[in-house]
Each structure stands twice: as C-alpha cells, then as structure tokens.
C-alpha cells in the first residue's frame, strides 16, 4: 500500500514534518549528539498550541520507542 503525501492538506503535512523532527531530535539524544534543550528550542519556535501538543506527543512516543529518558 502506498500513500501520496503530496495529496494531503497542509495541516496533515505539517503534522508529518513535526513528527519527523521529533524523531530526529530524540535520535540525537540517544546518540549523545544533542540534548533536551534542542527539544525545548523547537517547542518555542512553534506558534500554535495544537502544534506544540502534537510535537510533544511525538517526542514522548519516540522516547518510549527508543528507550530515551
């Protein structure tokens, strides 16, 4: 099954991008190439509360999956 992400609306594309950023930042923490301050900086850049909540949920998800505390 394949999905054409280009067909998604802007809000859904943004959610996917935020999820990717969260995954990358948690991976960097796991590899000791970054710290929690990078997540805090990214959260500060987001304007809407919905984006912040989605990003934080994604960070929490990837921390569980990758075993980062």
UniProtKB/TrEMBL annotation:
Supply one GO molecular-function term: DNA binding
What is any Pfam family matched here?
A: DUF3283
Mind telling me which InterPro entries this protein's record contains? DUF3283, PolIII_theta_sf
GO biological process annotation, one example:
DNA replication
Q: What is this protein called?
A: DUF3283 family protein
């Amino acid at each position: 099954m394949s999905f054409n992400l280009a067909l998604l609306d802007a809000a859904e594309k943004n959610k996917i991008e935020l999820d990717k950023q969260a995954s990358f930042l948690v991976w960097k923490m796991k590899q000791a190439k970054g710290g929690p301050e990078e997540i805090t900086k990214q959260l500060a850049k987001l304007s809407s509360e919905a984006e912040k909540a989605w990003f934080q949920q994604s960070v929490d998800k990837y921390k569980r999956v990758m075993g980062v505390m």
